[in-house]
Amino acid sequence: MSQSPASSEVGVNFFGLPCMLQEELDFVEPTTFMVGDNLCTFHFLTRKERAMHKETSEGFDPLSDAEKGSSPDGVNLKPRYPAVDYFRGTTILFVVTFHLIWVLGGFELIPDFPVMAGYNLPITNYLYFLAFYAVSFFWVNLSRFVHPWIQYLLFPVVTLSCIYMLCWESERSGVCTIMLCVGLSLAIVHEDRIKWRNLIIRTLKLGVAAGIISALTYIFIPTSPIYFGAIHCITLNTLLTMIFIRVPRIAFVGFISIQLFTMMGRVFPLEIPMDRPTVDVIPWFHNLGYCLLGVWLHSVGAHKISAIELIPGRPMHFEDTVFTFFGRHSLTVYLAHMLPALFILGVHVYSKWW
């Protein structure tokens, strides 16, 4: 890919890490509007479904004025945990935005992809990411008191800024938060007993999805196919996490041990090779630790949070946002954006050969 003179220049961000200069962010305005407008649209279209889930969730107050009358009578839904859906939804949308920038960069519709730079200290990197994202999301959520749609216009601004300021950290943190959701979800599903039928069906679905992604990339991007990406990693770690599903304290010790092992710069002997040409490869051993962390978080009741109070006396319910909808359909959202993105990028690669 050819580089323009401006796109090869880098600056230094707040944390002292290399980042793109201001002229590289010219595309942010149209991209943020595109993402923000779609979130507002989905907020409107999904209000009935979210209202039904809000009614069936324990600990919720009656529906807000904005949602009253949107839930049809006689519909029974299995109660879900809004905090898990919300966290999973924000995570999958962060990943979708990251891949959107990746595809647009492949088509040279925006300046080159942000500079990748980081250190081999995972916890340090994630703390950088968490500090920026948590503080930003605090202000994004406060905007809900003014109007619920303002948060959707601010979400892509925060996300894109994070990607361009902390790209290396954003990529790895996005994967780790997905794995944390995997562990938390598995602990919820199997909290009373191990449901083998559910586990087998889930694993088969993930395996088929992983196979489709690998096959498509081998066809359309033969020089850099995905041989072990995010779905492959989730499939393997789903099975490995089940070993610890009944021992959350040991799972937490496993998380700490894996982090310390990684911070020492060591590579697990059975780790996937990371030096092969590919557009995406995910180390399973390091990310297994975050699945184990999710198991432990379930044991301390983190999944039971139904609302947050940034301002005392004014709770903000997770189901009042569209993020819970995307969290309930995270695999569908991931495949719906990933498969077309890989197809389009592959066509673009082929077009350069002719």
From TrEMBL:
InterPro entries xref list: HGSNAT_cat (IPR012429)
Keyword Nuclease: no
Transmembrane spans: 86-105, 125-142, 149-166, 201-220, 226-245, 250-268, 331-350
Keywords: Membrane, Transmembrane, Transmembrane helix
Coiled-coil regions, chain positions: none
Signal peptide (residue range): none
Domain Heparan-alpha-glucosaminide N-acetyltransferase catalytic: 170-338
Pfam hit, one: HGSNAT_cat
Superkingdom classification of source: Eukaryota
Protein name in the entry: Heparan-alpha-glucosaminide N-acetyltransferase catalytic domain-containing protein
